[in-house]
Specification:
Number of helices: 1
Helix content: under 10%
Number of strands: 12
Shape: globular
Radius of gyration: 20 Å
Length: 202
């Protein structure tokens, strides 16, 4: 009987180890596609390094295309890349509008790596009002809300479902979460590619 707690502890650790093994760490990649060999992408990253990323057979490919600020309406689900202001608001440096079927994706507020100290807020537009410095948007997510100012020159983009024909050398891309395998290789089940020369701004 005295062995039961130890046995239980052993299985708890074993199951925790299995769970950790199943959740591969992910890497965010921004860069330019240099080569496409079947499902294998050669990418020159924003930082200047060369990486190889394998697309899964069922990879979801989205084109990042320009759109207008007027497309952001109350009820829209958007992502705002921003810089924090001294008064607690967020000043947008890029906005992406999610398609309706991606509502709720990565909802919330978090640090981001577009620039030093930048943030990302994925949330629903509760209110949008024209202000003196741009559009004032109130974003609401499950744990709170953020006030965002979107200056007139802010890049506004959206995602359009496409296929691998948009994945070609010279195109710029962002992979939000490439899975890092145990052997060090990278694999992506979603690729976002700028169309018509666009660099995904988020």
């Amino acid at each position: 009987m005295s062995k039961s707690p130890s046995l239980a502890a052993f299985f708890a650790v074993a199951f925790a180890s299995i769970a950790l093994a199943q959740q591969a760490p992910t890497v965010r990649i921004r860069g330019t596609i240099e080569s496409v060999d079947g499902n294998l992408l050669g990418i020159k990253t924003r930082e200047g390094s060369d990486v190889k990323v394998k697309m899964t057979d069922n990879v979801a490919v989205f084109a990042v295309v320009k759109t207008e600020l007027s497309e952001i309406k109350e009820g829209s689900y958007i992502g705002v890349t921003a810089m924090p202001e001294p008064d607690g608001t967020q000043k947008a440096i890029a906005v992406h509008i999610f398609p309706e079927n991606q509502r709720g994706a990565a909802e919330g507020f978090r640090p981001w790596d577009a620039r030093a100290n930048s943030t990302m807020t994925n949330a629903t537009v509760a209110q949008t009002v024209k202000g003196t410095d741009g559009q004032n948007i109130t974003l609401k997510y499950k744990d709170g809300e953020k006030k965002v100012v979107v200056p007139p020159d802010t890049p506004i983009v959206t995602f359009v479902a496409t296929d691998k024909s948009d994945v070609k050398p010279g195109a710029r891309l962002i992979i939000f979460g490439a899975a890092k395998k145990e052997d060090g290789s990278l694999e992506a089940n979603r690729v976002n590619v700028g169309r018509d020369g666009i660099t995904p701004p988020m």
